[in-house]
C-alpha cells in the first residue's frame, strides 16, 4: 500500500526546500508565537496600588509619605482615611491619628509605576471589589482556547492548513491591538476571548505544516528545533515587556509580529498530503514538483509523480469508504474522547 512518505522520499524528505522553510518560517514563527499566548501575564499584571487622593498626590511629599497619609496599616490597597485632606495638607501637620475613620477608596486608585506605566488592570481599575474581573479575563481567554482548538483543527482539515494558519494570525493581530484600544470593558472581554480562540492553534499549525513536509526520521529534530525556538521566544518576552512598560506598546509589538506572519502567504505551501486527500491533484503536483526541483531531484520531470499522486488519492478514497465517517458529534458519543480532550486542553 502506498503512503505519502513514499512520494516524499522521491521528491526529497529533507533537502534545501525543507531547510529553507525551517530557517525562514518555523524558527521565526516559533519564536514570536509564545508572545501571543504568554503576553497576558504582563498585560494583566496587577501593580501595587492604593487610593487616589488628589490633594495628596499633587503635593511634594514622597510616595512613601503619601501612602502613609492615605492608607490605613491593615488595608494598603482598598481603604483610605475618611478625613478632610485639603485641610490636612494646608495645615502641614502630617501626624497620623489611629482614630481617624476609614472608608473605601473614593476617587479610584493610584498605581505604582516601578515596573509598568500601565497594564490592563490599571486601565480598567480591576482591583479591590472588582479584582475578580482580571481572573475573568484570563478564564474567558482559556474558554476561547478550549473552543478554538477543535474548531480550527476541524477547519484545517476542511479548508487547509495554510489558510487556517493565516486566518489565526490575522485574528490574533486584530484582537490583540483591538482589545488594547477598546473603548469599553465589555468589548475588551469579547476581543480577549476571540484572541484565545487562536493562540494554541497557530503554533500547532506552524508545526504541522513543517512536519507534513519532512520525512519521518527527521520529525523529531524538527520538533526539537520548534520547541527550542519557542523557549527562546518565552525568554525574550519579559525583555520586550520591560522595554515597552505599557500594555499598549506591548500589544503593538505582539500584534505587529502577528501581522508579519501574514507575509508568509507567498512562501508557505499548502500541505501536499492534505491536497492529495482532497483530490486536488494539480495543486499537490505543483507543490511536490517545486520541492523536487529545489532538492535537485528529477521525479518532477516524468509522469511518475502525478501517477503516484493519483494512486495515493485512490487508495485514500477506498480507505475512507471502508471506515466509519467521523463527525464532531463523536465528541459527545465517546467518554474517553471527552476525557482526553479535557486533559489535553487543561493540563
UniProtKB/TrEMBL annotation:
InterPro entries listed in its UniProt record: MFS_dom (IPR020846), MFS_sugar_transport-like (IPR005828), MFS_trans_sf (IPR036259)
Gene Ontology cellular component terms for the protein in this record: membrane
Q: What subcellular compartments does it reside in?
A: Membrane
Q: Which domain of life is it from?
A: Eukaryota
Q: Name one GO molecular function term.
A: transmembrane transporter activity
Where do transmembrane segments lie in this chain?
A: 20-43, 133-152, 164-181, 187-210, 222-241, 247-265
In the bilayer, the protein is annotated as: Multi-pass membrane protein
Per UniProt, the keywords (alphabetical) are: Membrane, Transmembrane, Transmembrane helix
Q: Report the residue ranges that make up the Major facilitator superfamily (MFS) profile domain in this protein.
A: 23-347
Q: Where is it mostly found?
A: membrane
- Which protein is depicted? Carcinine transporter
Gene name of the record:
CarT_0
Amino acid at each position: 500500500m502506498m503512503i505519502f512518505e513514499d512520494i516524499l522520499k522521491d521528491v526529497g524528505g529533507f533537502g534545501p526546500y525543507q531547510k529553507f522553510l525551517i530557517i525562514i518560517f518555523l524558527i521565526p514563527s516559533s519564536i514570536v508565537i509564545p508572545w501571543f499566548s504568554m503576553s497576558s501575564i504582563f498585560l494583566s499584571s496587577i501593580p501595587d496600588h492604593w487610593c487616589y487622593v488628589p490633594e495628596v498626590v499633587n503635593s511634594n511629599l514622597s510616595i512613601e509619605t503619601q501612602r502613609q497619609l492615605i492608607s490605613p496599616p491593615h488595608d494598603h490597597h482598598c481603604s483610605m482615611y475618611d478625613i478632610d485632606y485639603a485641610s490636612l495638607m494646608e495645615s502641614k501637620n502630617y501626624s497620623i491619628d489611629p482614630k481617624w475613620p476609614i472608608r473605601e477608596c473614593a476617587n479610584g486608585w493610584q498605581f505604582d509605576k516601578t515596573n509598568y506605566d500601565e497594564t490592563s488592570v490599571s486601565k480598567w481599575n480591576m482591583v479591590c471589589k472588582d479584582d475578580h474581573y482580571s481572573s475573568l479575563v484570563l478564564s474567558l481567554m482559556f474558554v476561547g482556547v478550549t473552543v478554538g482548538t477543535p474548531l480550527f483543527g476541524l477547519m484545517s482539515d476542511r479548508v487547509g492548513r495554510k489558510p487556517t494558519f493565516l486566518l489565526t494570525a490575522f485574528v490574533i493581530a486584530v484582537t490583540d491591538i483591538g482589545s488594547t484600544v477598546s473603548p469599553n470593558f465589555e468589548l475588551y472581554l469579547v476581543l480577549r476571548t476571540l484572541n484565545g480562540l487562536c493562540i494554541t492553534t497557530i503554533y500547532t499549525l506552524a508545526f504541522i505544516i513543517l512536519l507534513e513536509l519532512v520525512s519521518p526520521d527527521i520529525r523529531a529534530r524538527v520538533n526539537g528545533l520548534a520547541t527550542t525556538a519557542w523557549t527562546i521566544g518565552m525568554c525574550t518576552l519579559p525583555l520586550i515587556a520591560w522595554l515597552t512598560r505599557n500594555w499598549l506598546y506591548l500589544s503593538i509589538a505582539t500584534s505587529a509580529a502577528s501581522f508579519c506572519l501574514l507575509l508568509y502567504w507567498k512562501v508557505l505551501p499548502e500541505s501536499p498530503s492534505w491536497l492529495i486527500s482532497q483530490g486536488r491533484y494539480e495543486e499537490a503536483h505543483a507543490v511536490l514538483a517545486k520541492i523536487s526541483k529545489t532538492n535537485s531531484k528529477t521525479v518532477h520531470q516524468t509522469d511518475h509523480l502525478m501517477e503516484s499522486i493519483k494512486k495515493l488519492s485512490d487508495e485514500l478514497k477506498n480507505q475512507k469508504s471502508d471506515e466509519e465517517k467521523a463527525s464532531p458529534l463523536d465528541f459527545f458519543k465517546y467518554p474517553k474522547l471527552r476525557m482526553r480532550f479535557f486533559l489535553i486542553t487543561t493540563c
